[in-house]
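Priority: medium. Attachment 1 of 2:
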């Protein structure tokens, strides 16, 4: 008689069976291609409570179980001022998924609100990152892992071009400038959001969205940011109707930048012009 699997075991199995091609393989590809994990790493997997970070936690657990490279994991939840319902939802989902979370508290929501009431989201994100780095370092970690995915990379690139007047991507691995010896990694860099949604729905899971009160009643700059991302999502969805490969083409585009064809570009904060090469060739 076949053994009945626990709910978390069913969810784990779905990752390496049903979603092997769309989630597990792209995840492993990113880890290997961008050299995200080395032997001896202690990684804080940062969990906000949403679908992306919760899936990241399960992927990292699965990798840890099967990897020949020895590394340690801590599943870190920062409570920046969640209401009671959202805090409880995160804890319940962690138990359901068999993720042993470490929770610490901060007052990020209140501080961001007080410091910049009309445009708190950018400040809130930076403060969250700082608190996560600090706590991870306190726990002996040398890396934090965030749940940004391939769709985030694509949308951020397009938003920069369409709304920011610049070509700027989102790196899979970054060295911290404020916390010596710490790095940020994005192991879901090659996983599309639609596939994360399919995994969530397939397993009947219900996660919190952004738990910040600001997104419920935004005016000014941050509303513009959310509106821009929604418009970019809609644009990509429309383009896919005529070209199903549009997301992959954009993603490959940021891996295949032809600097020789650009009028100007920056590297290490220094602007360069095509004229530098043009005049040398005369």
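Attachment 2 of 2:
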């Amino acid at each position: 008689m076949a053994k009945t699997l626990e709910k978390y075991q069913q969810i784990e199995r779905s990752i390496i069976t049903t979603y092997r091609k769309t989630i597990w393989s792209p995840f492993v590809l990113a880890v290997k291609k961008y050299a995200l994990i080395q032997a001896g790493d202690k990684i804080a997997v940062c969990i906000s409570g949403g679908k992306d970070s919760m899936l990241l936690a399960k992927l990292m657990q699965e990798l840890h179980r099967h990897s020949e490279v020895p590394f340690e994991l801590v599943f870190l939840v920062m409570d920046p001022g969640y209401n009671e319902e959202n805090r409880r939802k995160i804890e319940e989902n962690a138990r359901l998924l068999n993720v042993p979370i470490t929770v610490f508290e901060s007052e990020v929501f209140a501080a961001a609100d007080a410091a910049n009431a009309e445009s708190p989201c950018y400040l809130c994100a930076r403060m969250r990152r700082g608190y996560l780095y600090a706590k991870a370092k306190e726990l002996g970690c040398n890396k934090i892992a965030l749940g940004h995915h391939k769709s985030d990379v694509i949308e951020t690139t397009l938003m920069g071009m369409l709304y920011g007047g610049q070509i700027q991507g989102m790196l899979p691995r970054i060295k911290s400038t404020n916390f010596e010896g710490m790095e940020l990694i994005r192991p879901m860099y090659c996983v599309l959001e639609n596939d994360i949604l399919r995994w969530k729905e397939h397993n009947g899971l219900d996660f919190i969205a952004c738990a910040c009160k600001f997104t419920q009643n935004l005016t000014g700059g941050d509303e513009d940011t959310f509106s821009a991302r929604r418009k970019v999502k809609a644009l990509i969805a429309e383009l896919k109707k005529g070209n199903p490969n549009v997301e992959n083409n954009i993603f490959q585009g940021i891996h295949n930048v032809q600097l020789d064809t650009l009028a100007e570009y920056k590297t290490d904060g220094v602007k360069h012009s095509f004229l530098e090469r043009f005049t040398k060739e005369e």
